[in-house]
Amino acid sequence: MTVDPMPIDPERGDEVVALLHSLGAAEIEHPGGTLLAHLRRVRAILAGWGARPELQLAGLCHACYGTDGFATALLPPDAPARAELARLIGAAAEEIVYRYASCDRKASYATLPHADGAFHDRFAGTAFVPSPQQRRDFAELTVANELDLLQVSPEVRARWGEALGRLFTSLRPLLSSPAWQAVEQTLGGQLPAQPAHQVRQGRQ
After folding, report:
1. Closest CA to 18 of 46, 60, 52
2. Among 74, 126, 143, 181, which residue is least crowded by beta carbons within 10 Å?
3. Mean pLDDT of successive 10-residue stretches along the chain, which has 204 residues
4. d(CA 131, CA 64)
5. How far apart are the first and last CA of the chain?
6. Backbone φ/ψ region at 125: left (φ over 0), alpha (ψ -120 to 50), beta
């Protein structure tokens, strides 16, 4: 199921892609081709689900600071770099990018579905309780990212398919209807019958 996407400003989108090129994203190998190709596919997935422009821009930049599953960073997660990225994509989108990059997955994934669950920032070594919107944004971006990897890489699917099926099932209350339908279409029989209580760390 797809819905009418909320478009991002074409000029801004072109500027973001130009920045990613300048930072070397088109030369970094990644499942399915290059990191830049992956970033563009994730943004397209989110657009197909009707994500608002801020989340689409975050999807396009979600690996800028590296992630807990992909160590290569295009920018350092420090104040000057964050301010520069925020000037280009907006503060709201940059906050989503930072939150995605900073997530200590082992500590955060299992608690993410709970309203009082802590989110652990691996950069700062701190924890906080995200708002419902922050949880939904993180879950939607996580699923878009991982689904792209599952779709383009048989190796990723063979190694991580079942674990990601458990993760996605645990996140289901936070996901949009189009996102969950994409999960069902991609994983089908690899999804558990019941929500998982123990969730393994997924990939970038």
Report:
1. 60
2. 126
3. 61 88 96 96 97 96 96 97 97 98 97 96 98 98 98 94 95 97 90 57 44
4. 23
5. 24
6. left
